[in-house]
Design a protein that fits this description.
The chain is mainly alpha-helical. The protein has a single domain, classed as Endonuclease III, domain 1 (Orthogonal Bundle), CATH 1.10.340. It has 11 helices and 2 strands. A two-stranded parallel sheet has the order 1-2. The radius of gyration is 16 Å and the shape is globular. The model has no long low-confidence stretch (mean pLDDT about 95).
Length: about 190
């Protein structure tokens, strides 16, 4: 059976086959994907995946406690790093989001608990026949975006939130004909 049609390059195929849509409950991974999805705005996902290791290095392996303490000097250094998207607003958002993650962890016990509570604790399983059927945003991503913004997160508009929800498995938007459609549900 064919995989989802957007997975064309080796990098995208590996991401599709090993990660995309697989439910994640790991706070570090959830924070990583939040940074990467925010960085993706205006770029292709492949561009971000090509820089993923750069992000991992630059943002202390996505340790929210460390990122939350970044100083103005550290942020300026990040803006010189060719391994990431050097956009001031996105770098600032990553630090702001790390601080917001810490507050969410204090309140809910984990980022995972908070996020999965937003969708009733389990992934939404869609029946996608073609990628023309996949919306850019949904009422669930609208609600998540509003909740994140209320808690001080940045670069979390509804479209970014929906891509995030797909990436971390809160939504299964694999094509029904894709082998991963059933695999990620196990």
């Amino acid at each position: 059976m064919p995989r989802c049609s957007w997975a064309k390059s080796e990098l995208m195929i590996a991401y599709h086959d090993q990660e995309w849509g697989l439910p994640s409950y790991d706070d570090r991974h959830l924070f990583e994907m939040l940074i990467l999805e925010g960085a993706q705005a205006g770029f292709s996902w492949e561009t971000i995946l090509n820089r993923r290791e750069g992000y991992k290095r630059a943002f202390d392996n996505f340790d929210a406690e460390k990122v939350a303490r970044y100083t103005a000097k550290k942020k300026e250094k990040l803006l010189q790093d060719p391994g990431i998207i050097r956009n001031r607003l996105k770098v600032e958002a990553a630090v702001t989001n790390a601080q917001a993650v810490l507050k969410v962890q204090d309140e809910f016990g984990s980022l995972s608990n908070f996020l999965w509570d937003q969708v009733g604790g389990k992934p939404k399983i869609n029946k996608v026949k073609g990628f023309g059927d996949v919306p850019a945003k949904t009422p669930a991503s609208d609600a998540l975006s509003k909740e994140l913004i209320k808690r001080g997160f940045k670069f979390v508009g509804s479209t970014i939130c929906y891509a995030y929800m797909q990436a971390v498995g809160m939504v299964n938007d694999h094509l029904m004909s894709c082998p991963r459609y059933k695999e990620v549900q196990k």
